[in-house]
Amino acid sequence: MRQPEAVAFFKHILDFKRAALARLKDKRKARRYYVGPAFPLKARIVLTDSDGGPRKGKEPPPPDAGRNWGGSLFNMSGEGLSLQLPPAAIAKRGEQTSVTLSLDGHELKLPCRVAHFRVQAGTAYCGLTLDFPGETERKSYLQLLEAVALGSTLAPASGSSSSHDRPGLRAERYKSARPALLTAWRDATSGDLAGFELVLRDHCLHAEARRPALEIFANKGGGEKTAWSAPGFGFSTGVENGELRQLFRWVALNTSRTIPTDLREMMRFFAHARDDWKAPPKK
Asked: Which residue ranges form the domains of the chain, and what is each CATH number?
């Protein structure tokens, strides 16, 4: 695992500057973003006196003193998160603690305090207000939150999608509350899914059902795309491709249920597909 103080989910994409961090802090303070069960984000929280026994001494224990409890996140905001814990967990409102977020080899540990705690139907629900030690930790957390928001807010776009139809294929479009636009194409007769294209800010990821390989382009606007590895684009290949594929995987694993099931399944397939895939030989 990487050390919490040095973690950066992305070094080349979603590189929020100080002004952007301030805007995201204000915009995201109230809105909560759903974390689906397929999203591989794990959380651990330290709770003191988890056995319900009396505390000893006059001074409160340090935030790291106590028992680690693993939980499942179900929503996040710019300033906090909520998670489900085993019913044996005990916490008090205002209690100072820490939470560790783990995702695909990344680890981010943040001090926090308990905003609310209740036990209902055999599950403990705990809300946490995060206390960011500095801008580095805030940026790392907001990168993670951006990945959650990109997928969880995708919903059918208003207006006609016919202008994006292709010969024999009709288009469906889904827009996110964040800078993301998903277009899917279906056979105009059978309705079978033929492929999709996901635009994430300045990047475009394209997939076709007949070729299980995710293609990455630079999105230049107005429908114009350039191969990500094109000379003169100003980025080195490999590192950015890897980060974009990672971001796509996280988006695909946390897409909204307003997206048709077959499209969600296709996106998840391509989230794990390899570029060196080859069709098996015909028997």
From this structure: 4-150 (2.40.10.220), 155-272 (no CATH)
Asked if 150 and 161 count as a contact pair (C-beta separation under 8 A), the reply is no
- Residues 15, 151, 25, 91: is their CA dihedral positive or negative? negative
Q: What is the pLDDT of residue 14?
A: 72
Quick one: pLDDT at residue 1? 36
For residue 128, which amino acid is it? Answer: L
Cβ-contact 67, 85 below 8 angstroms: no
Kind of pairing between the strands at 180-187 and 203-208: unpaired
Which pLDDT does position 237 carry in this prediction? 42
CB neighbour class for 49 (10 Å; exposed up to 12, middle 13-18, buried from 19): middle
Secondary structure (3-state) at 266: helix
Question: Which amino acid is located at 100 in the chain?
Answer: T
For residue range 3-49, list pLDDT tens digits in order: 444 456 777 677 666 555 555 555 545 689 999 999 999 999 998 75
Q: Output the pTM of the full model.
A: 0.78
**Sequence-separated (6 or more) residues with CB below 8 Å from residue 40:** 103, 104, 253
